[in-house]
Amino acid sequence: MALTNALRARSVTTSKPWRFANTVSTYQLKRTYFSIHHPDPPPFAKTQDRILSAAIERVPEHGFTQRAMTLGAKDAGYLDVTVQLFPRRVFDLINYHLVTQRLLLKETVQFPEGGRLGMGGKVRTLAMARLRANADIIQHWKGALGHMSLLENIPASMKELNALSDEIWYLAGDTAVDSSWYTKRASLAAVYASSEMFMTTDTSSDFVATEEFLDRRLKDAQILGGMAGGFSQYIGFWTGNSVNLARSWGIRV
């Protein structure tokens, strides 16, 4: 019962950044060796960051396209040919969205010290906050998922999904370094990935259906339990659903 209540704890959202009511401070936990996806240096060079951050502003209108990248380069004060700095082209823009939104989680979701929200509730809140960060570009996200599932992009896509799962567990306060470390992260990655795909078809108000879907998946995966089969579930998502999604968009895989 306690686990079910924790997983069903609803996030409290306000204007950005999202915070819990009566928040008094952010969890400050010293990272240990198990948080390996968070280097201190900026993830993008200055020129790349300027172009991609400008290009992201064009995505709601133009999608994750070469057109958005070219316009972003112009908006940032660079020539069209500057987009050649991005050998992976559109995927570099998609990856920029993934990385920057993951790094923003620690600022957009905060928990009060001594709060009553359990680990499951925190994981759920962080996962939903990250999903909501796709709201402004959700009409283009199915196409982005198709690009992510291309053979040459799968390793980087999986790496970033791993990083997101690790970030969520870290921000939720998980410090366990036992045998459950890998299965927890693999299971959460699978839950998040399936929820993200579901969200691309969600027409409910304020993505209520996605929120309910996430709750069901978290409960099914038993995030705070042993999570047997988490790894196979994770791999199954990428080898099945994402490939089918790419094909549905006419992308060769």
From TrEMBL:
<keyword id="KW-0809">Transit peptide</keyword>
<comment type="function">
    <text>Membrane-associated protein that warps the membrane surface to access and bind aromatic isoprenes with high specificity, including ubiquinone (CoQ) isoprene intermediates and presents them directly to Coq7, therefore facilitating the Coq7-mediated hydroxylase step. Participates in the biosynthesis of coenzyme Q, also named ubiquinone, an essential lipid-soluble electron transporter for aerobic cellular respiration.</text>
</comment>
<comment type="similarity">
    <text>Belongs to the COQ9 family.</text>
</comment>
<comment type="pathway">
    <text>Cofactor biosynthesis; ubiquinone biosynthesis.</text>
</comment>
<dbReference type="InterPro" id="IPR012762">
    <property type="entry name" value="Ubiq_biosynth_COQ9"/>
</dbReference>
<keyword id="KW-0496">Mitochondrion</keyword>
<dbReference type="GO" id="GO:0006744">
    <property type="term" value="P:ubiquinone biosynthetic process"/>
</dbReference>
<dbReference type="InterPro" id="IPR013718">
    <property type="entry name" value="COQ9_C"/>
</dbReference>
<dbReference type="GO" id="GO:0008289">
    <property type="term" value="F:lipid binding"/>
</dbReference>
<dbReference type="GO" id="GO:0005743">
    <property type="term" value="C:mitochondrial inner membrane"/>
</dbReference>
<keyword id="KW-0446">Lipid-binding</keyword>
<protein>
    <recommendedName>
        <fullName>Ubiquinone biosynthesis protein</fullName>
    </recommendedName>
</protein>
<feature type="domain" description="COQ9 C-terminal">
    <location>
        <begin position="154"/>
        <end position="222"/>
    </location>
</feature>
<keyword id="KW-0831">Ubiquinone biosynthesis</keyword>
<dbReference type="Pfam" id="PF08511">
    <property type="entry name" value="COQ9"/>
</dbReference>
